[in-house]
């Protein structure tokens, strides 16, 4: 008699990961919100509105992947919003100077990656708290963006209309491709590469990781470089929608990305969290924002609700620590 064993498919493994623990709770909350809002306004779950939600969170989703990576490594990056703004300003400046779009995009993303490199080197060499360094560098990048742009709006003259206005199958915006590709790449990076495993190890216990032979400084620097590059990609998605950029455009994105990541189960402690969970956190943020708009909730109330979500996210992040004390 022969016995056969079946190996679970990769898709099945991903699905089970999404249905575990906090992710299952978040999906339940999403379903509850969707059912409740749809009962009041049947347009909420129509395809056009669902696509609109994903389009609205496309920039936030990419930045959240950068934030999640930094958190999992045991750090944090509060400069990603301003890196995104600076990258967009660089791209606009080059296009206005008559440079090809592809070259402007390449230089903009390289500039964003360089910002991440600077963050990573300072954090790694000085052993200073990433929160303080990235907060300070956020001001530096904001100042550079202001100097370059003169504090004025900078246009793109439709240079990115081929991204912003393109619809796949006449329904799905091309910007969603950027979001889904980034999420997929980050999933593979953290779950199926040596780099990802070592980043998790560093976040879990940096001293043990160093003693086991992992080049901690190098990996931490690369983490912030990847975060910078993702901020550069986010800037392209943003300008393809707005067709303009201003130095202040990145304000608040870092906190929204942090909130989405933490809601999705990525903790401040490092070494814990998943790409899938962070992505669900992004969707939840988008659904809540869209639901309040559909229900015509006062903008002041929306601000208060957003603040409440941040508090809840921090509490959820510390549940494990509270249980251990």
From TrEMBL:
It comes from the Bacteria. InterPro entries: ABC_transp_permease (IPR001851). GO terms for cellular component: plasma membrane. GO terms for molecular function: transmembrane transporter activity. The chain crosses the membrane at residues 24-41, 53-71, 78-95, 101-122, 129-148, 168-190, 221-239, 245-268, 275-294, 300-319. The keyword Ubl conjugation does not apply. It is found in: Cell membrane. Keywords: Cell membrane, Membrane, Transmembrane, Transmembrane helix. The keyword Transmembrane helix applies. This is ABC transporter permease. It comes from Tessaracoccus rhinocerotis. The lineage of its organism: Bacteria, Bacillati, Actinomycetota, Actinomycetes, Propionibacteriales.
């Amino acid at each position: 008699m022969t016995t056969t064993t079946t190996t679970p498919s990769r898709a099945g493994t991903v699905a089970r990961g999404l249905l575990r623990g906090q992710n299952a709770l978040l999906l339940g909350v999403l379903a509850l919100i969707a059912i409740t809002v749809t009962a009041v306004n049947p347009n909420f779950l129509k395809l056009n509105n669902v696509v609109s939600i994903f389009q609205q969170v496309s920039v936030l989703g990419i930045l959240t992947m950068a934030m999640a990576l930094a958190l999992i490594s045991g750090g944090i990056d509060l400069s990603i919003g301003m890196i995104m703004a600076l990258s967009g300003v660089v791209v606009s400046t080059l296009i206005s100077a008559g440079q090809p779009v592809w070259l402007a995009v390449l230089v903009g993303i390289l500039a964003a990656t360089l910002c991440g490199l600077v963050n990573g080197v300072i954090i790694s060499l000085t052993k200073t708290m990433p929160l303080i360094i990235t907060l300070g560098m956020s001001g530096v990048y904001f100042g550079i963006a202001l100097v370059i742009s003169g504090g004025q709006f900078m246009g793109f003259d439709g240079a990115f209309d081929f991204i912003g206005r393109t619809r796949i199958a006449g329904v799905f915006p091309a910007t969603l491709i950027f979001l889904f590709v980034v999420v997929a790449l980050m999933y593979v990076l953290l779950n199926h590469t040596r780099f990802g495993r070592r980043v998790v190890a560093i976040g879990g216990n940096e001293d043990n990781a160093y003693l086991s032979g992992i080049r901690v400084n190098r990996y931490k620097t690369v983490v912030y470089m990847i975060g910078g590059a993702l901020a550069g990609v986010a800037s392209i998605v943003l300008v393809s929608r707005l067709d303009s950029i201003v130095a202040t455009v990145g304000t608040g994105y870092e906190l929204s990305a942090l909130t989405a990541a933490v809601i999705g189960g990525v903790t401040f402690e490092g070494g814990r969290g998943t790409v899938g969970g962070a992505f669900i956190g992004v969707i939840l943020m988008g659904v809540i924002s869209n639901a309040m708009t559909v229900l015509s909730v006062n903008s002041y109330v929306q601000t208060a609700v957003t603040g409440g979500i941040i508090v809840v996210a921090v509490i959820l992040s510390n549940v494990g620590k509270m249980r251990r004390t």
